Amino acid sequence: MRYEGNIFRPFSEASSYLLQCTVGCSHNLCTFCGMYKDKRYRIRGIEEIKEDIRMARERLGDVEKVFLCDGDAIAIDTETLLAVLASLKEAFPSLRHVGSYVGPRSTLKKSMEELKALRAAGLSKAYLGVETGDDDLLAKVRKGVTAEEMLRAGQNLVEAGMNLSSMVLLGLAGRSDASRRHALSTAAITNAMKPRYLAALTVTPVPGTVLYEELRRGDFELPDPFETLEEMKLIFEHITIDGLKFVGIHASNYLPVNGTLLRDRDRMLREVNAVLENRNKSALRPESMRGL
Description:
alpha/beta
């Protein structure tokens, strides 16, 4: 296996074989993101990818899970991506899961027929960086799409039959009046999108990013841990779809919370309220233990 630069994956893909199909991210402009800054985006050649798959088969044997790196494998033209999926299926007879980060703009460039073909070929899980449902905030962080476009990208993935994980960022609005709007609009876009998973991370300014420079200049004020928990609480209170698996155990979060909404909502709210009511810092993950 060969890799260029730092490799990133969702924590749920820890046991997956990581296959680098693109180098970097096709968008790579988000103000909060420090990933892929050491790379110039390009799509690897199909023969190069197939050679990596052959090497992985020799070294790892038969695998069940594969994650397509880097930041936006769905940006690859559909014919090539179908060839990659066919090669994976041939190399790994036990393959049951192929996941990928997906960018909203790249997803919208695929027709429904293409998305369904990719799903039928084995692309089973898509991780979409939604971040927020607020139009103004999406523009501010340079996400490259409107809330309506983000919603349509997510809905298309769901309609195509993919297991969609929507990733959102607590604290992205900073310490401002926009914080409540961020939380409410994030709940609203989630209700309309209907992903299977909602994964929450907490904004963590990374040196070298635009957001870090905004923080350093005083143009962005980082919310305290309890303010990010207030956002999490608002999201819980305003989710209306049933069976949504909330994943809040990412290392960036101050309070790890997991559960299925709406079934576990009362228990999840009790966990958050217990910390908010007493401003109990001892219940929070220490800063030294937080990370991306």
